[in-house]
Amino acid sequence: MHELGLALEVVDVVSRRAEGARVRRVVLEIGALAAVLPDALRGAFEIAAVGSSAEGADLEIRPLAAHGRCRACSHVVATHDVLAVCPCGGIDLEWLDGTDLRIREMEVT
Ligand SMILES: [Zn+2]
Fold first, then answer.
1. Which residues lie below 8 Å from residue 29, measured CB to CB, with a gap of 6+?
2. pLDDT recorded at residue 82
3. Which of 31, 50, 69, 73 lies most in the core, judged by the most C-beta atoms within 10 Å?
4. Residue range 27-36: mean pLDDT, rounded
């Protein structure tokens, strides 16, 4: 399960950054093409955090738009949909980003 691996990685990173403090909240940004299910990731995070300093922390997930350049007209489309269509009607997009997952913020006490 893809989400559990990600959750373990996030817990590992925030625990190290918290340096023994309690993690209260984590904000993740996830690209539209990362193929991550937010609910699955939230559930996996809860499990992965047990016994770590992130146990019980709130996980906020913010979707990030992906950008694709239309191969027909070079227009760059920002979208949350992998099946995006360019205003010119083109559907052949060269993806410039959208698979990123990053820890945007964390709150510790
Ligand atoms: Zn186009």
1. 62, 63, 64, 100, 101, 102, 104
2. 87
3. 31
4. 94
Predicted TM-score (pTM) of the model is 0.84
User: Which residues, chain by chain, have CB under 5 Å from ion ligand 1?
Assistant: 70, 72-73, 75, 86, 88, 90
Tokens of 43: 């559930």
One-letter amino acid identity for 86?
C
Rounded Cα gap, residues 91 and 78, in angstroms: 13
Q: Are 104 and 18 in contact (CB under 8 A)?
A: no
At 100, which amino acid appears? D
3-class SS at 58? strand
Task: Calculate how far, in angstroms, residue 92's C-alpha sits from the geometric centre of ligand 1.
Answer: 8
Summary count for the chain: helices (H), strands (E): 2, 6
Total count of residues recorded for the chain:
109
Q: Give the distance (Å) from ligand 1 centre to CA of residue 95.
A: 13
Compute CA 10 distance to the chain's CA centroid, rounded to the nearest angstrom. 10
